[in-house]
Design goal:
mainly alpha
Length: 139
């Protein structure tokens, strides 16, 4: 089932990069769907006055959003590495952090599929018994 983890991780990290929903941002009611902070900065520099200030505000908001998405990806990457090492509980915890970061922005979190894949792997993985010291009877 491990390939499902790779697939779910790849999907989530590509799916959420920044603003991917319609907005009516600021006094100008900008729709920032699909726009990056860099693009908004270019528009701020290409305009003047109130419009430029509105684009600067949009750029700052997009920059914060992109930083949150990047942090979610970092937690997702850590979760994948922990899962591949067999540390399922830590992996699940890190995947949940990615979901928690995304939750304020999406109703249906793209990181949830990845978290659920880790949960399924954890539930499926055989429990590793504690190390046992074998007595050989040899003195």
């Amino acid at each position: 089932m491990i390939p499902n983890l790779h697939q779910a991780f790849a999907h989530a990290q590509l799916q959420w990069q920044g603003c991917d929903w319609d907005t009516a941002f600021g006094s100008r009611l900008f729709n920032l769907n699909g726009m990056t902070a860099r693009q908004a900065t270019l528009l701020a520099n290409a305009t003047a006055g109130e419009e430029s200030r509105a684009w600067q505000e949009a750029s700052a908001w997009l920059d914060r959003l992109e930083a949150v998405a990047a942090l979610a990806r970092e937690h997702g990457q850590a979760a994948l590495e922990l899962a591949l090492a067999g540390d399922w509980d830590a992996a699940l915890s890190r995947a949940q952090l990615a979901c928690d970061l995304e939750a304020p922005y999406h109703i249906h979190c793209v990181w949830a599929e990845f978290r659920n894949a880790i949960q399924a792997e954890r539930d499926w993985a055989p429990a590793v018994p504690p190390a046992t010291v074998w007595q050989t009877g040899v003195t």
